[in-house]
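Researcher: Here's a chain I'd like modeled. Treat it as a single chain, no partners, no ligands.
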Amino acid sequence: MHPGNLQATIVGDLAEPGLLPDNSFDCMIITQTLQLIFDFRAAITGLHEALKPGGVLLLTVPSISQLDVGEAGSTWYWTFTPLSMMRMFCEEFGSAAITVDVFGNVFAATAFLQGVAAEEVDCAKLQPYDPAYPVVIAVRAQKAQV
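Model: Modeled as a single isolated chain. Structure tokens:
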């Protein structure tokens, strides 16, 4: 989010301690952002702290992706795997509170890398999951009740 965006309510680096108020959110949706944060572990800690007890974080990251050579190119630090996401979020939330879902196959990865829209392909070809070609990783993490 840009500081000049007048509709933004929070602007800053998710890794910055205190950016998000503690115990404030029932649900947080963070899509395709973690790979742009150098200190992603601090960001995960901050997101955990910002959730209310019982609150849920819904987060996605790319796995197979082209690198952004435009605006985000100077801050594209990481590429994640399903295993790395599971381990990182288990450290903060605990293994019982984490679900990691993975989407993708060689067809979806190829179409994505070529810039083909979902509307331009047979959707049935996007459905099968192939663990060798994860395109998007989704995490559901729930903060423990107090």
